[in-house]
Amino acid sequence: MSLRGAVITIAALGLVVGGWLFFYRQPANDVATVETHDQTVPIVEAPVDEKLADFFVLTNVGTFALPLGTYRPELLAATDGTFYVVVVEPKGESRHWAYHYDADWKLIGQPFAVSAITEEYGESADHRAMLFGDELVVIYQSRGASDQSLILARFTLDGQLVKRLPIIANAANGAGEDFSEPAITWFNNHITITTGTGEQKLKIRQIDVDGNVVSTEVYPVAAGSAISNEIGNSLFVDANGNLNLVSGNEPTSTESLVITTFDSLGEISASLRLPTNGREETFPADNTGASGYEFIAYISGVDPYLKILDAESHVLADVQIGQGGFMYVHPTVAVSGGHVFVAWSKNVDGQSQVQIEELTIASD
Predict the structure, then answer these.
(1) Could you give the CA distance from residue 225 to residue 202 in angstroms, rounded to a whole number?
(2) Can you say whether the dihedral through the CA atoms of 328, 329, 333, 336 is positive or negative?
(3) Each residue's pLDDT tens digit in the chain (364 positions)?
(4) Cβ–Cβ under 8 Å, residues 336 and 301
(5) β-sheet with 83-91: strand ranges across
(6) Residue 44 CB: number of other CB atoms within 10 A?
(7) How far is CA 58 from the centre of its chain?
(8) Which pTM does this prediction carry?
(9) Residue 146 gets which letter from DSSP?
């Protein structure tokens, strides 16, 4: 069925949870059952329909910039029409800060620190964030001289710390853990996190809201296989309730994005390679779903891009969002009020600065 001429209404996809579940408390470490999956599945090429290519037209209607020195943004759209942007901005007692903006990008309150530098766990590094009910949830890597930890921090929406604790504490370097560039989503009533190992394996952990590890699944990683990268990925839950991982192949292989689907038992059930336009496509740092479409933010070279997929994984748009990124660019995407927003790290005369692009979306 052709989509041309359809009237598209994009609505923000939000999760409202009416209260926390009660959990028992146990020491924060990986004590839950670990299951290793050795099987893989062949990668299938995503369907291509030339009539649907460039179905969506995106128009940039404004750019908002955070202060110089900010980078690696996590852009989150709240159900009340406001936005949270969690960035790296080394200053004072923290390397990570959350900014809260209204729909017109006016700052609400003051930025608040979301990570901590401590003697026990070291200095905070890579982070991810999500909104859950009436809280902002942040996970981040913290690095000591010879170890690293994976930290969970929960905040009220006005920036008050609810709880901070290690999910995995003081894992020795080289001991099969790599908490850099994790991915996070809410799945199966748990916070679900992917991390690497440094050993060509990917771990998917499910934790409760108190940081207790409920389960750990381990998967093989190889360029050109169902899972092609340990880190720099993103997660989403599809319309069938299945968990999906979006990973980018190493630049020396097929240079494309792969969507891997897991069944209810945690087995890999499908792996889909998205079409490219003859360019390197890596680091799919974020995605969001709205009105039956999936929006995937990724990079090519040092520039941010955005793909929009329909439910059958047809690519309806694949557009460049900006030019001249800083470091890993780390584009993230949100949909709110009928517009698409993409945050990314821009190189401004050798300094980093988070830029947020606002785009309208229309069918061709």
Answers:
(1) 13
(2) positive
(3) 223 333 334 433 333 333 333 223 333 455 567 899 987 788 888 888 888 888 999 999 999 999 999 999 999 999 999 999 999 999 988 999 999 999 999 999 999 999 999 999 999 999 999 999 999 999 999 999 999 999 999 999 999 999 999 999 999 999 999 999 999 999 999 999 999 999 999 999 999 999 999 999 999 998 778 898 899 999 999 999 999 999 986 544 557 899 999 998 999 999 999 988 888 899 999 999 999 999 999 999 999 999 999 999 999 999 999 999 998 899 999 999 999 999 999 999 999 999 999 999 998 7
(4) no
(5) 71-77, 83-91, 94-101, 112-113
(6) 12
(7) 22
(8) 0.90
(9) S
Contact 259, 244 (CB under 8 A): yes
Q: What is the CA radius of gyration of the chain?
A: 19
Please, what's the b/e burial string for 249-277 (b: 16 or more CB within 10 A of its CB; e: otherwise)?
beeeebbbbbbbbbeeebebebbbbbbbe
Amino acid residing at 213 = V
